[in-house]
Design a protein that fits this description.
With about 280 residues, the chain is of the alpha/beta class. Helix content is about 35%, strand content about 20%. It has helices at about 15-30, 45-60, 75-80, 100-105, 110-115, 145-155, 175-180, 190-205, 220-225, 255-260, and strands spanning about 5-10, 35-40, 65-70, 90, 120, 130-135, 160-165, 210-215, 235-240, 265-270. The chain starts with a strand and ends with a strand. The model is unreliable at about 170-180 (pLDDT under 50).
Length: about 280
């Protein structure tokens, strides 16, 4: 099944960056794009109209294969009711929700993350061209779909890929914390080390320049710290929260959502493989 892009907007002015990012990704990946406008208020003039007008001009300039759709309803509910598959890449950005609504029903991205099984690109900024990609490893012994998509984008965009693994804080007295902070790769388990090496080999096979970075500490804090070292254009992460059958979503922190809410860099979230 051919991959395709579904770009969703409710007309929020901040979502224009998402439109630009999705359009560039459609061009890079040679994917057809559907722009889905969600009309949440039945006004005579709706902000979706302005987004559509500007988007069509952009799509035509880039010579994209595109289509337009309009639906009524609440964006989060519209997405939750759709049928999803791995061939659809969802692009979504800020929906302009008030703090009161976020407090009352939860943050929009978290709700979307839990209801959409397809790969999700959450873009608050259009960081273009795509030259640096950060792929975050979970520590499992397999190459996840997030890493595969990140490598494919890196290949097509001619971008550099950096693989990041965060080692949990050292609690054992037998491991000096100072030494661990200086060389966290020394305390990394063999499983993620093997996976990182395998990923770098895959990157080399695709002709992609890549590097490995190992940090130690709180995962979200260390990812944010790494983002400050270079101007990354995309973060690729796996997430258990898009899989209702995965028990980890009931007790583990939503790392992907925390990162997406803390940074301006576009974040790709892909359903993590089951343990």
């Amino acid at each position: 099944m051919k991959n395709k892009i579904l770009l969703v907007t409710n007309g929020c002015s901040k979502s224009w960056a998402t439109v630009q990012y999705a359009a560039e990704m459609a061009k890079i990946m040679k994917m057809p794009l559907t722009l889905l406008g969600v009309v949440e208020k039945m006004d005579i003039e709706h902000p979706v109209e302005d987004i559509f007008s500007r988007a069509v001009t952009l799509f035509q300039e880039k010579e994209l294969d595109y289509s337009l759709q309009l639906v009524n309803g609440d964006t989060e509910d519209v997405l939750a009711k759709r049928e999803w598959d791995e061939s659809t890449y969802l692009f979504v950005g800020p929906l302009g929700r008030s703090q009161f609504r976020q407090w009352l029903v939860g943050r929009s991205f978290r709700k979307i993350l839990e209801s959409v099984s397809s790969p999700i690109f959450y873009a608050r900024e259009a960081r273009l061209p795509i030259k640096r990609i950060l792929v975050c490893f979970s520590g499992l012994d397999n190459i996840s779909n997030a890493e595969k998509i990140g490598l494919e984008i890196g290949k097509r965009a001619g971008a550099e890929v950096k693989f990041l693994h965060v080692v949990p804080p050292v609690e054992s007295e037998s491991l000096p914390s100072l030494e661990a902070e200086k060389k966290p790769e020394k305390i990394m388990d063999k499983k993620p080390a093997k996976t990182l090496k395998k990923a770098q080999e895959h990157a080399e096979d695709k002709g992609i320049e890549s590097n490995i970075v190992v940090r130690q500490g709180n995962i979200v804090q260390q990812i944010c710290a790494e983002l400050k070292t270079q101007n990354y254009d995309l973060i690729c992460m796996g997430s258990y929260f898009s899989d209702p059958e995965n028990l980890r979503r009931h007790y583990a922190p939503n790392i992907t959502a925390e990162v997406a809410e803390a940074v301006d860099c576009p974040v790709l979230s892909v359903r993590a493989s089951p343990l």
